[in-house]
Automatic annotation (TrEMBL):
It comes from Actinophytocola algeriensis. Keywords: Glycosyltransferase, Transferase. The keyword Disulfide bond does not apply. It holds the Pfam family Glyco_transf_9. GO terms for cellular component: cytosol. This is ADP-heptose:LPS heptosyltransferase. One of its GO terms (biological process) is lipopolysaccharide core region biosynthetic process. One of its GO terms (molecular function) is ADP-heptose-lipopolysaccharide heptosyltransferase activity. The keyword Glycosyltransferase applies. It comes from the Bacteria.
Length: 361
């Protein structure tokens, strides 16, 4: 039974809305998956300023999102895990964030979350900052912190659809489900066919074993594909381990590049092989064939690629999924995949793409 206070908020007059703050304070891929909602919002309120509150990781992709005017980059306390911090430090940090948000003079705050994430800390910041309309998805009662408390969709709903459903509750019709990024043209990529391989991920439980990624890279290289191995700066040792393990001259590190440049390289690739990570969603938005080693941390229907014409999601069905864990407490059976099968899927997609391109008039 629903709480009597849920789903009572009336949609605003979007023609009168001047400034909107969209909150998506988690990972880069999550921000990419907000782009259909941001596009729909832009069409509903074409004269409004639309700003994005994002984490340092998520903010990196914001320059590629046409609907976003400005980015507030925030290491939000409610998105951080690990060593507890002093209460005084957290209070001072929240006070500074409230003032930053207050300075934006926003009419509307939209708090976009994944299943299991609480929207209430962000909505509380919006309330203290004086934002008149604060919309969230939640199964939990939050009092007056949100003005529009919307029943979330069922567990397993795709992240794109989850975002669009919150907007629909506010009177914003969808404007397509396709991811949208304004990706620049790549410079310095291999002249022949090449693959991008990304062995990283936001946490260890999402990562296919690097020694297996090395086998995948070697098999692709032996088939004639140059392989660029990429990762965030903190993943440089992981990239080096894959390159060294592949031991093939066609397998090289991409090197340190910003997200717009990474997106450009991905858009020029013939295939991308990656974990359930930001590179998955960059490839999906670029409509590049992608093979995903998809861990059981999230449901298989929550964030698979849907925009690209060619994708294969590989992962074993396990009873503990979706676990939402940073570290697998068992033996990572969900990613116990034969690297020969992963490489074969990537090569099959590369051949199919080349066949389609040759057939084009």
């Amino acid at each position: 039974m629903k709480h009597p206070a849920v789903d009572l908020g009336r949609p605003p007059d979007w023609r009168a809305v001047e400034r909107v703050l969209v909150v998506r304070a988690d990972n880069l891929g999550d921000v990419v998956m907000t782009t259909p909602a941001l596009r729909a919002l832009r069409r509903a309120a074409p004269h409004a300023r639309v700003d994005l509150l994002a984490s340092p990781a998520g903010a990196q992709v914001a320059p590629l999102i046409p609907a976003v005017t400005e980015v507030l980059t925030v290491s939000a306390s409610w998105q951080q895990a690990g060593t507890p911090r002093a209460v005084g430090d957290l209070a001072a940090e929240e006070a500074r964030l409230v003032e930053r948000v207050r300075a934006g003079n926003y009419d509307v705050m939209l708090v976009l979350t994944s299943h299991g994430q609480s929207p209430w800390p962000a909505a509380h910041v919006g309330m203290l900052a004086g934002i008149g309309l604060r919309a969230v998805h939640s199964t939990e009662f939050g009092g007056a912190v949100a003005t529009h408390w919307v029943t979330p969709p069922p567990v397993g709903t795709h992240q794109v659809d989850r975002c669009l459903l919150l907007l629909a509750a506010l009177g914003v019709p969808p404007a397509g489900h396709e991811l949208e990024l304004a990706i620049p043209k790549a410079d310095g990529v291999p002249e022949g066919p090449f693959a991008v391989l990304a062995p990283g991920g936001s946490c260890p439980s999402k990562r296919y074993a690097p020694e297996r990624f090395a086998v995948v890279a070697r098999r692709l290289a032996e088939s004639g594909l140059a392989v660029l191995v990429t990762g965030a700066p903190k993943e440089a040792p992981l990239v080096d381990e894959v390159v060294a393990g592949a031991a093939h001259p066609l397998v090289t590190p991409l090197g340190a590049v910003a997200v717009p440049e990474l997106a450009a390289v991905i858009a020029a690739a013939d295939v991308v092989v990656c974990n359930n990570s930001g590179c998955l969603h960059l490839a999906d938005a670029a409509r590049v064939p992608v093979v995903v080693t998809y861990a059981g941390t999230e449901g298989r229907t929550e964030m698979p690629p849907r925009t690209t014409l060619a994708a294969q999601v590989l992962g074993n069905v396990v009873p503990c999924a979706p676990c939402r864990q940073f570290h697998c407490p068992y033996h990572h059976e969900c990613l116990d995949l034969d690297p020969e099968h992963v490489a074969a899927a990537a090569l099959r997609m590369t051949g199919e793409r080349m066949t389609r391109e040759v057939a084009l008039p």
